[in-house]
């Protein structure tokens, strides 16, 4: 049986409240990766992925999902028959002002998932 590449599934609602499911292949190293719409396979955004065998961080544009709704994330990495991970719920992001010295370093319109 062939092992498939790990895939990250991200489920949430857009600004209009419509359900949106996106997928991306998880790279073995840090890179820019295309996030695809699961239904149409169109590229929705290019995201920043930082990762290795022990930790991952994904930075996505906040405009993809509504800030008022939770986002659900699942790493699909099947080994043999079983799927080893469930869904992780990320609560809606609370708007917090960025301190003045950090504003120049923050990327406008981006959110990070760790």
Structure description:
With 114 residues, the protein is mainly β. The protein has one domain. The chain is built from 1 helix and 10 strands. It has an 8-stranded antiparallel sheet with strand order 9-6-1-2-3-4-5-10, with no helix packed on it. Strands 7-8 form a two-stranded antiparallel ribbon. It is globular and about 40 Å long. The N and C termini lie far apart (31 Å). About 4% of the residues have low confidence.
The profile of the biggest β sheet is: 8 strands, antiparallel
Q: What fraction of residues sit in β-strands?
A: over 45%
Spans where pLDDT lies below 50 across 5 or more residues: 102-106
The total domain count is: 1
User: What is the N-to-C order of secondary-structure elements (H for helix, E for strand)?
Assistant: EEEEEEEEEHE
Give the helix tally.
1
Structural class: mainly beta
Radius of gyration: 15 Å
As laid out across the biggest beta sheet, the strand order is: 9-6-1-2-3-4-5-10
| Inertia-based shape | globular
What percent of the residues sit in helical stretches (DSSP H or I)?
under 10%
Mean of residue pLDDT values: 77
Instruction: Give the strand tally.
Output: 10
- How far do the termini sit from each other? 31 Å
